[in-house]
């Protein structure tokens, strides 16, 4: 048997009146269902013989709801609080505390009715937690414990979607296929995403069709047309709308703009502005000069417009080179060798241009290269004379007599006038005027005797001047090398200081000598050493030629004593191997010394004796005494003021 039971509610909410909990009665199984949140106070029911009993607390209420953005003139009724202790006799009053109490929410202390006195915004605060209490009106003591409840602000669709990151800018390559992703736009809605469709956004495109589209749910902007060409149009302005309520009528919307720029790809081949070009160039241009600039057109930009050039025909002599200008990408033709109008007056080149960076996707659009013809005309200029050899080398013997012919230089006028040439020497390169040149024939001859040992090479500049135009002057260089003859005798290589120990033994080598010669024979030096005829028979020293351009001096006896003689002078004859041979006599000074046991000199005398003269020590003393006597006599005459005639001559004051 099923009985229907109707519970008595102690708390009534304006919103939950439509959603009141109900009992589904049945002894076989009763349940309590509510669409709203569970009440703070609960009911407990049991079936016993088809009847039920209710056990309840004194306070019973549901969660309260209040709509945001209420615009009525009167305070908005929220709900009612009621205690079972309140018998309607006016003994109980109701008190409200917590968030917004008295400032937003008020309660009628007699009836327990709750009102909202201000307009609420869920986006500012979604719920308020309050505390309610029933008190005895007379003594203000609580008749029920204080209990907590929530007033939740119910959302309405009062916020439009907003693009917080807008406006947007994006880039996408031109010629992109349909459906290429460009950018993702995002709109946010401040309404409650958990309640209804107030925050559910749908995207659409208002401006920018038919070129672009937007995914309704994701906000991904994509290309909608193929073959969009940057060279035709490079920027598009899109307007994207975001609408809440899933795009339904009555939904709120917001917009943003997207500036889409098409970036360049290499989809345009280069081509010359003309099929043929003509330029003039002077034959006097130096190597590396730019002789032509060729303009090339390419609708692409940046790396996609970088060029490469090459000469495909007409430059078998490799006179020219073509390279791109780094800034303008023009083709620069530069000179690699000198020009000569008289040899060739024009050149016809076929040049090719191509892109440096090829995009294989667009090869079907045609060859990414072009060709053109370039005619280069050589302009004639009046050139100075040109020597047949810019550098001439000549030889002349230092024995050559004045007026001897050394050689001949030759120059010619390269122009068609073929002017006669006059020659001269740049005297700044021949200050001592060793040479002359015949002004008409270019024959060079000696003007002074030459000495190879003073100057072995003469670097002479020759001027060649056009007779018809003296301002046209060419220059040539002549290196004149003076060849050697045997005109210098050999001599000691160094100034020797030779020491002889008193303890020297016969046959001991006391010095090894060598020689040098300012001449430079082609076969090298060959020196021969010997004693002069006057000293060949002396009993003190002898000389041994070592056959290697050196000679050794040896003692012939022992027993040298310093008290007998302290120095010896040994004349040595040195002869070269020239033809005819030249020789010189060089004197070797030998000082007699007291030596230690190792042969190192300790003390040496200062007297000298010529072996060839054989003067003794006593004779030298006598000669010195005579000289001193004569000097004294002269000095006495000067001091006395008397003219004397004698060894000093005549002295007069």
From TrEMBL:
GO MF entries: beta-catenin binding; cadherin binding; calcium ion binding
GO cellular component, one term: catenin complex
Signal sequence interval, chain numbering: 1-29
Keywords: Calcium, Cell adhesion, Cell membrane, Glycoprotein, Membrane, Metal-binding, Repeat, Signal, Transmembrane, Transmembrane helix
Compartments, record wording: Cell membrane
Topology term for the membrane: Single-pass type I membrane protein
Cross-referenced SUPFAM superfamilies: Cadherin-like (SSF49313)
Domain Cadherin, residue spans: 83-163, 164-272, 273-387, 396-492, 492-603
Protein name: Cadherin 7a
Domain of life: Eukaryota
Residues passing through the membrane, by range: 619-644
InterPro entries: Cadherin, Cadherin-like_dom, Cadherin-like_sf, Cadherin_CS
GO terms, biological process: adherens junction organization; calcium-dependent cell-cell adhesion via plasma membrane cell adhesion molecules; cell migration; cell morphogenesis; cell-cell adhesion mediated by cadherin; cell-cell junction assembly; homophilic cell adhesion via plasma membrane adhesion molecules
Pfam family, one: Cadherin
